[in-house]
Amino acid sequence: MSDGRISSSKAPKPVGLYPHARRVGNLLFLSGVGPRVANSNANDSTVPGLKLDHNGNFEEFDFEAQVHSVFQNVKAVLEDSGSSWDKIVDVTVFLVHMKRDFRTFNRIYAEYFKDNLPCRTTVEINSLPTPIAIELKVIATID
Description:
By secondary structure, this protein is an alpha+beta fold. It has one domain (5-141): CATH 3.30.1330.40. Helices cover 23% and strands 27% of the residues. It contains two helices and eight strands; from the N terminus they run E-E-E-E-E-H-E-H-E-E. The protein has helices at residues 63-80, 98-112; strands spanning 5-6, 21-24, 27-30, 50-52, 58-61, 88-95, 119-124, 134-141. A hairpin with a 2-residue loop joins strand 2 and strand 3 (27-30). It is globular, with a radius of gyration of 15 Å. The two termini are 15 Å apart. 29% of the residues are buried.
């Protein structure tokens, strides 16, 4: 860890030049985390619940699998950074299709956050840099 920058081998590799997280004082700021499989590259389309044809069109799509995977990836970055799920204080959620996915996300979110109620903002965006349907930006405390 230099200058508070943290990288995790248990999370997907960043799609640009940035760390998985950065510690500033007793706060931990996670870069955007998506559902790609741990250690996958940006060009790797290994996304749980997603299968694309050779033209990049959806053959299979399971948003629930992506939500569970993004939460697992966030948890891995938190733990590798010395924090934990119960120390999350703020979550920003990026969805590429609010009408289709918000209810499903909200239901699964409630399962993961029933004991910890961080602040949350959910926004719809046109797209993400890889073929994923969700990304989270998280702030947590750290001792």
